[in-house]
Amino acid sequence: MSGLRERMGRLRGSGGGNADRGTTDAGGQAMPDPSALGDGKSDVPGAGTGPGTDEARKVRQAAEQSLGPEWERLGVKLVRSEAGEFLLRRIVYPPSFRHGTHRLAELSETAGHLAAFHPGETVEAEQILFLDLETTGLGVGTGNVPFMVGIAYWRQDGFTVEQALIRHPAEEYAMLFYLRELFESFRYLATYNGRTFDWPVVQNRLILNGYRNRMWEPLHLDFLHPARSIWRNTLPSCKLSRVEEERLGIVREDDVPGSLAPQLYFQFLADGNPLTVEGVFRHNETDMLSLACLAVRFGYLLAGDGGSGLPLPEEGEELVRTGLWLERMGRAENAEAMFAAAERSGRIDSGALLLLAARDKKAGNWQRAVLLWQKAIHCESRLGTTFYEAYTELAMYYEHKAKNIELALHYTKEALELALSHPLAGKRNPKRRAELDALRKRLDRLHRKNGKLAPGADGKGAGAALQGGA
């Protein structure tokens, strides 16, 4: 215990224990230039600048001290206030800065359309706070500590990224004091899965540090949900790094995976070397810039600028899923444009047709839904096998709507045969087994409705006979 107290004392007194080190690391290599972390200007503005309440400005007016050349090269300063100390890195990107396919200035041009996330509200770029955490673990429990909090916001002079880092748990109180006052300058919180992870983690830490009163209640702009709605089947993953590479033209070089951030932080706690967390700063900074570009992308889609402000998707299913998302967001006219583009593309497959048919089924447009299901059974999926879901939908339609038992029997048999020939049919997959059981029960019921003796009249039923021992 005494060793821990001594270490905490050294950390408080020396700003991490690195101020007296030289400009090279232990291996004699030159320290990196701060521009290696990003193309913006490393800057910690003086008193009275940036957003915030009066209390937040007081924090900004507090003494900001240099921590020595190693931290200085990273653009990191020590922030000291009545609440304590923590480290802060601030970078200001000019509006003309391009991150992938978008310029940051486009945020001010498209932010207003993000009001579709909260009908009846208005959105301005200056009202949005972007947030991304690097934490010691997973989950939102009390044991998960955000050791680095990245925030970003737009002002006319550029896009500012701030990254707060704690060198030990005792600095968390001061970091949260600073952030808590800053939060109140914004109305919207933009994140990637922040509604269920980042923001609950911050709330827990505020409560645990005694900040129970005057809790900020932002309106969320969580971009994970539209990303999944649009790209769930057309991208290998909806992780931010995959979305930005495949759809935003952003390529990360020498990036530290987010999964390694906790390990690097614990190593930093042990060695106190700023170079240990250099990659974590870079990773978090790129996340913040990518969040801004996602806001631009969804703003363009909601504005109806697909095909002009940004290129249309190439895959029919992505066009359809984009249209369905726009429809849910109250942009019916923009959605119809996406559906029309999907039909014109010539690249519409069974998955896209089934999505459109489900939309018509929900609306009661049965004639068009049947036509789309019939089209779907003639398409091939990515695995080269026909989607049996279309046969199942046609079977239900002819049984319950058209009252044509013969056709219902025909489509149910086709569906069951295709389901049994599916590559996953033999797997012990609960969902697949449930689908097969439902088709067998439907076939038995239809045979009884048709007044004919089903194959397997010995009690096994038509479905079991068709299964053939599968």
From TrEMBL:
Residues 129-296 form the YprB ribonuclease H-like domain. Residues 1-65, 449-470 are annotated as: Disordered. It holds the Pfam family RNase_H_2. Residues 458-470 have a biased composition (Gly residues). This is Ribonuclease H-like domain-containing protein. It comes from Paenibacillus thailandensis.
